[in-house]
Request: fold
Amino acid sequence: MCYYDNYQYACRDWKWGNFRMHCQKEYRTGETCGMKMIFQTVPLNEKCTQCEKIEKKKRRRQKALDDIARWERDGGKLQASIEKARDDVRALEAEITAMIAEKDRRYATIGNTRRAA
Ligand SMILES: [Zn+2]
Reply:
């Protein structure tokens, strides 16, 4: 096992940082082994890229939903726009779901590495 920095994002996701220290076992060889251990956790103020992308899509979805609500209050005269916005919301929802699943899968994999260490 070798020691690395661990960056923790505001969204609680994290990534490995710089290599810090060899473990006892690998010290003599000067190599790093495959096992990663946390040397220190460094908190970051921002969210990870993936969460930022998801948030951006959620904001677009919210904007489309707001537009639909407003247009419907106006008596639904902008039917074509409402339909298009509904399509956008459906597409965005599918994308958001896929991105969250992708992120969970990624962190589940890293999580296994960490537990194994
Ligand atoms: Zn995140």
User: Anything to note?
Assistant: Residues 79-116 form the longest helix (38 residues). The first strand starts at residue 2 and ends at 8. Residues 9, 11, 13, 47-48, 50-51 surround zinc ion (CB under 6 Å).
